[in-house]
C-alpha cells in the first residue's frame, strides 16, 4: 500500500475542528461546523444523514477536492494534499463515468496508464481487480453492454486497481433498485475485506449504512454537524439474511430515529 512509509503510530484519519463556509449571494453559508472524527485504518466508516447535511462536502475536504475554512485533516500522518499526490486515494462516485469507447478492462487500466505502469503489469493488475469484483469473462465488454450493477463493479475495480489506502464511496449505488443495491452491498463488503483498504462511504440509506459499516457517523443539518458516532458490532461477513436479524433491525430503527429527530428540528424552525 502507498501509505507504508507513514509513521507506524499515525494509522488513523483524524478530522479536527473542521468547518466549511461557502460564499453565497449576500454573505456566507456554513455547510459544516466543528467536525471532529477519527477513522481507524482498515475500517469501514459511513457518513449518514439527510440531503444537505454536508456529507459530500466533508468527503471532498478529506479527499483534497476542496479546502476547509477551519480545522485540520490528517491522513495517516499526511495532509490531504500529500495523501492525494502520493496516490493514496481511490474514488467511486454515484455515476460510474466509464469511457464508453473502452472495454471494462480498458477502463480499469486507465489509472495505471496515468501512473505510467507498463502494459503487461497494467493488464495483469486490472484483470485481478475485475476478478475480485466478479467480472472475469466480461473484460472485453463495452460499458453500453454492461448492466448498471456491472458498471458499478467496473468503477469499484478501477478505484481499487491503484491499491488505495483509502477508498471514498459517494452514494455509489444510487439509482439501483433495492434488491440490486443489497446485492452490491454484499459484494462491496467482500471486496473491501479482501482489499484491506480504509473505506469512507457517503449514503442516506440507513440499511446500507448498517450493513456495511464498522462505524456510522450520523450527521444533521443547519449547519452540518455530527449527531452521533455509532459502532455497528454485528459479526462479519454479513449477508442479506443478517439484515433480518433483531440486532440489525434495532440499529436501523435507532439510526432512523436519530435522523427523524433532525428532520423534525428542521420542520419546527
Ligand atoms: N460550492 C458550494 N457553494 C455553496 N453552497 C454549497 C456548495 N457546495 C455545497 N453547498 C451547500 O452545502 C450544503 C451541504 O451540501 P452537501 O452536498 O455536502 O450535502 P449532502 O449531505 O452530501 O447532500 P446530498 O445527500 O443531497 O448529496 C448544502 O446546503 C449545499 O447546497
TrEMBL record:
Matching CDD domains, A to Z? ABC_NrtD_SsuB_transporters (cd03293)
InterPro entries tied to this protein: AAA+_ATPase, ABC_transporter-like_ATP-bd, ABC_transporter-like_CS, ABC_transporter_ATP-bind, P-loop_NTPase
Q: Which terms are listed as keywords in the entry?
A: ATP-binding, Nucleotide-binding, Transport
This protein's record includes keyword ATP-binding: yes
Question: Gene3D superfamilies this protein is in?
Answer: P-loop containing nucleotide triphosphate hydrolases
Cross-referenced Pfam families, in alphabetical order?
A: ABC_tran
ABC transporter domain ranges (all copies):
13-246
The UniProt GO MF terms for this protein read: ATP binding
Asked if the keyword Transport belongs to this entry, the reply reads: yes
| PROSITE patterns documented for this protein | ABC_TRANSPORTER_1 (PS00211), ABC_TRANSPORTER_2 (PS50893)
Superkingdom of the source species: Bacteria
User: What's the protein here called?
Assistant: ABC transporter ATP-binding protein
Annotated source species: Antiquaquibacter soli
Amino acid at each position: 500500500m502507498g501509505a507504508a512509509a507513514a509513521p507506524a503510530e499515525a494509522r488513523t484519519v483524524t478530522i479536527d475542528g473542521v468547518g466549511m463556509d461557502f460564499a453565497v449571494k449576500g454573505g456566507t453559508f456554513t455547510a459544516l461546523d466543528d467536525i471532529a472524527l477519527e477513522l481507524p485504518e482498515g475500517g469501514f466508516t459511513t457518513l449518514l444523514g439527510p440531503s444537505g447535511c454536508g456529507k459530500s462536502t466533508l468527503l471532498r475536504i478529506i479527499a483534497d477536492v476542496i479546502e476547509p475554512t477551519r480545522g485540520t485533516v490528517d491522513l495517516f500522518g499526511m495532509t490531504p494534499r500529500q495523501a492525494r499526490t502520493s496516490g493514496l486515494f481511490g474514488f467511486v462516485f454515484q455515476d460510474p463515468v466509464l469511457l464508453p469507447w473502452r472495454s471494462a478492462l480498458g477502463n480499469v487500466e486507465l489509472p495505471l496508464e496515468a501512473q505510467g505502469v507498463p502494459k503487461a503489469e497494467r493488464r495483469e493488475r486490472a484483470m485481478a481487480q475485475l476478478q475480485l469484483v466478479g467480472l472475469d469473462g466480461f473484460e472485453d465488454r463495452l460499458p453500453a453492454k454492461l448492466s448498471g450493477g456491472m458498471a458499478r463493479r467496473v468503477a469499484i475495480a478501477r478505484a481499487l486497481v491503484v491499491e488505495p489506502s483509502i477508498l471514498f464511496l459517494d452514494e455509489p449505488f444510487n439509482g439501483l433498485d433495492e434488491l440490486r443495491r443489497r446485492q452490491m452491498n454484499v459484494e462491496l463488503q467482500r471486496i473491501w475485506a479482501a482489499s484491506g483498504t480504509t473505506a469512507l462511504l457517503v449514503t442516506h440509506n440507513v440499511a446500507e449504512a448498517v450493513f456495511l459499516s464498522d462505524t456510522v457517523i450520523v450527521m444533521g443539518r443547519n449547519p452540518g454537524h455530527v449527531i452521533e458516532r455509532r459502532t455497528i458490532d454485528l459479526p462479519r461477513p454479513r449477508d442479506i439474511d443478517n439484515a433480518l436479524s433483531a440486532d440489525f433491525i434495532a440499529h436501523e430503527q435507532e439510526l432512523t430515529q436519530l435522523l427523524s429527530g433532525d428532520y423534525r428540528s428542521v420542520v419546527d424552525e
